[in-house]
Amino acid sequence: MTFRRFLIKRIVIAFLLTLVSVSIIFVTLRALPGTPFSSLVASGGLSGEQVAELEAQYGLNEPIYVQYVKYIQSLLTLNFGYSIAESRPVSAIIYPRLLNTLVLLVPALITTAIVSSIAGLYAGWNRGSAFEQGSIVVTTFFRSTPVFVTGIFLLVIFAYQLGIFPAFGMRSPLDNPQGAIETYFAVDFAKHYFLPFVATVLYYSGDFLLLARNSVIERKGSAFLTLHRAKGLTEREQLARAGRNSMLPLVTYFALRMGMLFQGVITLEVVFAWPGIGRTLVQAINQQDYPTVQAAVFIMALAVIVMNLLADVMYAKIDPTVEEGDL
Asked: Between the N and C ends of the chain, which has fewer C-beta atoms within 10 Å?
């Protein structure tokens, strides 16, 4: 199979997966009991006629297939409509929250990948050492612990007991930053950022450390290292060469993990009240805000699928046998 055919096949699969994902959320939302306006009717806040007008305004009175077609069109054009709960464009809600999520998770994942990979290479090279055993125990513990449990633990110790860091949010209530610089590069932001950042790093560190460790162990006894050893290379130089040859699984896993950024973000953002896309999704589900839920799920699903596609392409470029085995 040529790389071009391999790429086309992967793109088609990615498109179909995206279509299935957004279709599932569309059906699931409309299978829920009631409508976004049911609670207002029950409380006497709206009359039946007013609800009918609102449903017509949002297209909820149209046949289900018409709603579905319009839904797909809105996703293709990235025109997500208006939020039912907030009465403003969904894009004005989603995009700033998405940026907040990326600001939290991307630096945390990059930091984890670099630090844990280096630690894993050192641990694998010094197999049986106290450092290897200790790093495995610590990282495995945090990886097996749900990220929201780690988050709650950090909050209890450093926010409520010691009072060193704020307990929730992305900034203090009275803080009113103007622009991205004042928002993301302020001391107040850094204080709010620290605990969710640490929780994310601790949660993902075990994956990169163990992967790097196992990879360098496989290569430590290889022929090319034996040759370098015979040439008189120092331990550090041998480790550097073994590390470079261990990069393939690490690079591929990093791309995959970038796609899975949202795996634990929902609970993490709820615990720290971080105003990101995961917390917005939870709030929109509780309010049965169809347009906001659909947009949030679409963006999160698209991120996962696109990054998996990039990981497949990257792996195929680095290792041509992958596309050959895809026949």
From this structure: C
